[in-house]
Amino acid sequence: MTLENVLLVSGIIFAIGLYGVLSRRSTIALLMSLELLFNAVVIAAVAFSRFTPSAGLADAGAVTANEVRAALTGHVFAVLVISVAAAESALALALIFALYRAKETVEITDVSEMKR
Amino acid sequence: MNEAFEVPTVVSFAFWVASAITIAAAIMVVTVRDVFKAAVFLAGSFIGVSAIFFLLNAEFVGVVQILVYVGAVSILIAFSVMMISDVSHGSQPSRARYASVTVSALVLAAIAVTVYNTEWTLNSGLTDPDAIAGLSGTFIEDEIASGEGRVRDASGIQASDSQVVQTGVLGDSTGTVGALLVREFVLPFETVGLVIVAALIGGLALMRPREGEPDPRGGG
To answer: Measured between beta carbons, which residues in chain A are less than 8 angstroms from residue B38?
Structure first.
């Protein structure tokens, strides 16, 4: 398990999610693929946090507590991204319900009013 | 090179198992026709990702992943699939399948080439024993209150009564992440709370039946 391997796994999950976003018709399945994209990015953030030092640690001089704590900035970003993704999925499902009530469909190809 | 950041073989093996499960479940999510089955596989994929977080010493993120994704988002999606009736049996075949595969494969190739051709600055390249102790050993912080105190390797010295020997931030990350969230990153933290409230109110506003229009589902 090196940084490269973890980033590769993250890239594979990102590519799978991208395929889902591009190819799925059902908006709910589209939302699931979006969640896969979010997860891939969060894995990358945590991997960088685990394997790379924060800027202050690499150069010479006394090591301060803040420099050591800054190594976990990736974890904080991961938590923030997860929270925003949860809010996004709640809002997206509300939109899908509104769409279903208005048009009796959730297929993305049936919703093309904005094209005209 | 130093040995403090070497990953044990067991952890490495577990990482590959978790990755294989996650990737297999993710492939099922984007290929299986039945959307409800896709939701179940999505939950499995989330669990695999949280296992990867635990193996990366990110216990806090792993627990948040299980709570938010497996506990809330998956359930929300599964209920939506059940309430929107024509989803599970009427799924159409994918659109633009070959173009999508091509684009995804190109993106993956770009990521892989970039990852393997970049000279990363790694923890294992650190030489300062204090920095190594602060990340993965045990350390003493000289002035505990200020945050700017000097971090010293605790393995060789005797801590006095006023000093506390702490585990390195990668060895015990939960407390440090909590401290970061309410100190350095308190503004983004509060903003995310605001975003969630706005999203929930917006979702409720979207779901409410319009004035004078009967609810098409037959309710009030």
So the answer is: 29, 32
